[in-house]
Design a protein that fits this description.
This protein is mainly alpha-helical and about 140 residues long. It is built from 5 helices and no strands. Helix 2 packs antiparallel against helix 3 (about 45-70), helix 3 packs antiparallel against helix 4 and helix 4 packs antiparallel against helix 5 (about 110-135). The protein is elongated.
């Protein structure tokens, strides 16, 4: 079986994915900044915010940063790291969003809407990167 030279030089990470990787890099930097700001603000769930920041928000953002950089450098293992970071985000987002909506009466509608919107975006990204991982290697 012969392979064409064009196929041999193709990167394992599609060039269309570089835009998503750049957006992920920016989003993870913004996420780290927002997590640090959330810790400095008085909040009824201050203890929960601190625990989640140390246990999930910051680690998922750091893994997401590394994944985005790897994808920008066209490394296939960046896809796996992106899936890990997104899975950690979804694992924390659902219970935290539910608890926040139930316990904090301020802006329940906004909190529920933001949680649902981020949940949909994360699920779509997991589907995208899962399909990208399933692409045949060049």
């Amino acid at each position: 079986m012969k392979t064409s030279p064009a196929l041999m030089t193709r990167s394992p990470v599609d060039s269309r994915d570089r835009g998503l990787a750049a957006a992920g890099l920016v989003a993870n930097v913004v996420w780290l900044i927002l997590a640090s700001l959330a810790l400095s603000q008085p909040d009824p769930l201050q203890t929960a915010n601190l625990v989640l920041a140390l246990a999930a928000w910051i680690p998922s953002a750091v893994v997401g940063l590394i994944a985005s950089l790897a994808l920008l450098w066209r490394r296939r293992w960046g896809i796996v790291l992106a899936l890990v970071a997104l899975s950690l985000q979804i694992l924390v987002l659902i219970p935290y969003g539910i608890v926040r909506v139930c316990l904090v009466s301020d802006a329940r509608g906004l909190t529920a809407s933001l949680t649902a919107a981020v949940l949909v975006i994360v699920i779509l990204l997991i589907v995208h990167w899962g399909r990208a991982l399933a692409r045949p290697r060049p």
